[in-house]
């Protein structure tokens, strides 16, 4: 791509003639116009509102897009396909017919313009949206970029006083992401659908994606582990001591007690010699720094923890608050707030809102008006952490208030003092066994600090007396308790998003949307047990894992994420990365054709398009061994294997073992299904 356009910073008021400003959405356009001038006129063309400002020497048109107006498409059928073009999205997606009128309006207003300004959101997607519009309807060589992090009037005015060249690195990275996602998606999806059609003569819509498929595999792997889980018994001790005439419970802190015999022996020791020795006692005052202002991932996590909101719901609400100019740009990874923001003005404005009036008064008194926010670790080159603009909210729904309130309180807390907590920790040991180690802790909040501004985090207080090392205490009660190992944690939408963050696949903007897509495609479903893979989702991953493990791996996806980051930082060329992807896809598809029928048969079985001759006695999958499918056979083998562990630890026979497993809630679903028909297998 030839990187043309203006190189120097320039004010929009220095430009003469017809100037067209492209906003990402109508709401954004409605904020930009009054920010630039109170003397603006509103018109409509094809039902699309646009705004005009006349200065005497320039005519400024603010026209909205409706998000993406162009998408990738090809006229080539089959696969592999590596030829594609950008086309109006209404020609590709039947649900995007409304974009036709936006494009017609843009086409009309962009004609004969002297200059163009991309004022879409300052991120990769916004850079691509504006670039493609100007490319097809304007002139790249006469184009500028507006950069802002909120739709507050003063920030918008400042951004248009300091227009820059087009952000070529972000444009290149954005185009690359679209092309990579399209190439992976269309080629692998077509290959899967072709395999199904070859075997069943039926056209079934299946999809696979560069980020979508590894994400689905993570859920599938978790589900398999949970469904095959057998809880293993172990033991813990609970003792109560007497101190100053009061009883206190201690937690067991020794090494794992594996057998009932060992647990009984330890209790016998405690009942024989009821004295414990204090071997360690610590008092400390701990300072807890305020949490930094939110990035999108942190906001999604807190909204899920406190209100049960899905990541997508939180992101959607935050984007609406941004378009209402109530908060800064939400799709950011940053936990930092720069000194360029006028915090005093924002905080004082928040003080005009009833629910924050007293908090603001306390904060200004506490800080003496010197507002310096705590900074987090994570950074984003494009935007700061999320902060309220100070504009007064009106007509917000209950859920919108919840998200706004989270953001505002977290912002205020970032300027507050540390929370101070006094903690006590004591360790006890018994003289007759190294395993008899116990501990207890207590804590008390001395200074609330930032916790009073952000009440969604509480420190549970527990008061314990003072001890001294060498002191002996009397055990008033001692008992053992059987506990069980726990299955892998259930996956919720927010846990899935945090996993995507941790392995660095997807972006702040796309992760929540990809998760929702997996549910929309019916690869995942919501249950009381969390997100679960459907038979279709399980089947797709089973096929891809067996025949094309590269497609399901995080490593391949993360490799291309890193490559795109290099493009964004100016260290790599987009064409190089696309060529790497093409070569990878070609190699995968060449192997695919050799196994297409075999793969298609397996997919058709999972989709219920082929009848299984020998069906598992517990499900519709084909028999693998002992009249069981692969998964139920694995469950059968696991039951036999873990009995040896149970027998050693619990002194139970096989019948008792089976009976206990049936009663335990944590026993895996496939395990329980096999337990119920065990007599028919053996």
Could you explain how this protein is built, in words?
This protein is of the alpha+beta class and 682 residues long. It folds into five domains: 155 residues, Rossmann fold (3-Layer(aba) Sandwich); 171 residues, Orthogonal Bundle (Topoisomerase I, domain 2), CATH 1.10.460.10; 121 residues, Topoisomerase I, domain 3; 118 residues, Orthogonal Bundle (Topoisomerase I, domain 4); 52 residues. It is built from 23 helices and 16 strands. The chain has a six-stranded mixed beta sheet. α8 packs across α9 and α9 crosses α12. The longest helix has 33 residues. 40% of the residues are buried. It catalyses: ATP-independent breakage of single-stranded DNA, followed by passage and rejoining. InterPro entries: Topo_IA, Topo_IA_2, Topo_IA_AS, Topo_IA_cen, Topo_IA_cen_sub1, Topo_IA_cen_sub2, Topo_IA_cen_sub3, Topo_IA_core_domain. Keywords: DNA-binding, Isomerase, Magnesium, Metal-binding, Topoisomerase, Zinc.
Name some characteristics of this structure:
six-stranded mixed β-sheet, single chain, metal-binding, Rossmann fold, 23 helices, 18% strand, Topo_IA_DNA-bd_dom, EC 5.6.2.1, alpha+beta, 44% helix, 682 residues, 5 domains, Topoisomerase I, domain 2, 16 strands, six-stranded antiparallel beta barrel, Topoisomerase I, domain 3, DNA-binding
Could you give the topology of this structure?
Blueprint: E1 17-23, H1 26-36, E2 41-45, E3 48-54, E4 58-64, E5 70-73, E6 85-88, H2 99-110, E7 115-119, H3 124-137, E8 143-145, H4 153-161, H5 168-200, H6 212-227, E9 233-243, E10 246-252, H7 260-272, E11 275-288, H8 296-307, H9 311-323, H10 343-350, H11 354-367, H12 398-413, E12 419-430, E13 433-447, E14 472-484, H13 493-503, H14 511-520, E15 524-527, E16 530-533, H15 535-547, H16 549-552, H17 554-568, H18 574-594, H19 596-607, H20 630-650, H21 654-663, H22 669-675, H23 678-681
Helix pairs in contact: 1-4, 3-5, 5-17, 5-18, 5-19, 6-15, 8-9, 8-12, 8-13, 9-12, 15-19, 20-22
């Amino acid at each position: 791509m030839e990187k043309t356009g203006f190189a120097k910073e320039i004010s929009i008021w220095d430009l003469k003639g017809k100037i067209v400003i492209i906003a990402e959405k109508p709401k954004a356009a409605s904020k930009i116009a009054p920010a630039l001038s109170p003397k603006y006129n509103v018109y409509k063309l094809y039902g699309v509102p646009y705004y005009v400002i006349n200065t005497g020497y320039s005519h400024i048109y603010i026209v909205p897009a409706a998000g993406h107006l162009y998408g990738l498409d090809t006229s080539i059928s089959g696969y592999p396909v590596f030829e594609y073009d950008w086309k109006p999205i209404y020609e590709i997606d039947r649900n995007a017919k409304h974009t036709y009128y936006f494009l017609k309006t843009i086409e009309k207003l962009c004609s004969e313009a002297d200059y163009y300004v991309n004022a879409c959101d300052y991120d990769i997607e916004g850079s691509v949206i504006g670039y493609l519009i100007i490319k097809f309807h304007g002139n790249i060589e006469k184009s500028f970029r507006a950069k802002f992090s909120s739709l507050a009037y003063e920030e918008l005015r400042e951004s248009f006083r300091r227009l820059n060249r087009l952000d070529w690195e972000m444009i290149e990275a954005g185009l690359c992401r679209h092309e990579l996602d399209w190439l992976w998606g269309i080629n692998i999806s077509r290959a899967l659908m072709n395999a199904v059609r070859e075997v069943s003569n039926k056209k079934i819509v299946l999809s696979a994606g560069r980020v979508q498929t590894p994400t689905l595999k993570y859920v599938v792997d978790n589900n398999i582990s949970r469904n095959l889980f057998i809880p293993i018994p172990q033991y813990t001790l609970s003792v109560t001591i007497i101190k100053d005439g009061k009883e206190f419970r201690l937690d067991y802190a020794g090494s794992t007690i594996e057998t009932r015999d060992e647990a009984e022996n330890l209790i016998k020791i405690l009942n024989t010699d009821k004295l414990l020795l204090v071997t360690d006692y610590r008092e400390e005052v701990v300072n807890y720094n305020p949490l930094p202002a939110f990035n999108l991932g942190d906001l999604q996590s807190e909204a899920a923890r406190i209100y049960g909101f899905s990541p997508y719901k939180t992101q959607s609400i935050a984007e609406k608050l941004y378009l209402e100019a109530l908060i800064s740009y939400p799709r950011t990874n940053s936990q930092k707030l720069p000194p360029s923001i006028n915090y005093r003005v924002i905080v004082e404005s928040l003080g005009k809102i009833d629910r924050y009036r007293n908090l603001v008064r306390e904060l200004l008194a506490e800080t003496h008006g010197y507002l310096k926010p705590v900074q987090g670790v994570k950074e984003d080159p494009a935007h700061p952490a999320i902060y309220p603009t100070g504009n007064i909210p009106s007509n917000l729904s209950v859920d919108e208030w919840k998200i706004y309130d989270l953001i505002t309180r977290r912002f205020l807390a970032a300027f507050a003092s540390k929370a101070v907590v006094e903690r006590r920790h004591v360790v006890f040991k018994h003289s007759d066994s190294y395993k008899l180690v116990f501990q207890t802790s207590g804590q008390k909040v001395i200074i609330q600090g930032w916790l009073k501004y952000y009440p969604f985090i509480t420190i549970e207080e527990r008061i314990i007396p003072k001890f001294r090392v060498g002191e002996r205490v009397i055990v008033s009660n001692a008992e053992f308790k059987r506990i069980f190992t726990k299955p892998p944690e259930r996956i919720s939408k927010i846990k899935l998003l945090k996993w995507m963050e941790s392995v660095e696949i997807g972006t702040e903007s796309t992760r929540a949307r990809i998760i929702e897509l997996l549910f929309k495609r019916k690869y995942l479903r919501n249950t009381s047990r969390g997100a679960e893979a459907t038979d279709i989702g399980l089947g797709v991953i089973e096929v891809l894992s067996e025949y094309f493990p590269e497609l399901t791996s995080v490593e391949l996806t993360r490799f291309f994420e890193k490559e795109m980051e290099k493009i964004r930082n100016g260290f790599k060329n987009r064409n190089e990365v696309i060529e790497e992807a093409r070569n990878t896809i070609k190699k995968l598809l060449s192997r695919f054709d050799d196994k297409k029928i075999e793969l298609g048969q397996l997919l058709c079985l999972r989709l219920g398009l082929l009848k299984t001759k020998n069906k598992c006695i517990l499900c519709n999958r084909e028999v693998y061994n002992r009249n069981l499918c692969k998964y139920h056979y694995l469950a059968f083998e696991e039951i036999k294997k873990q009995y040896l562990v149970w027998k050693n630890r619990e002194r139970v026979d096989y019948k008792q073992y089976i009976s206990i497993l049936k009663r335990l809630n944590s026993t895996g679903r496939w395990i329980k299904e096999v337990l119920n028909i065990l007599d028919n297998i053996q």
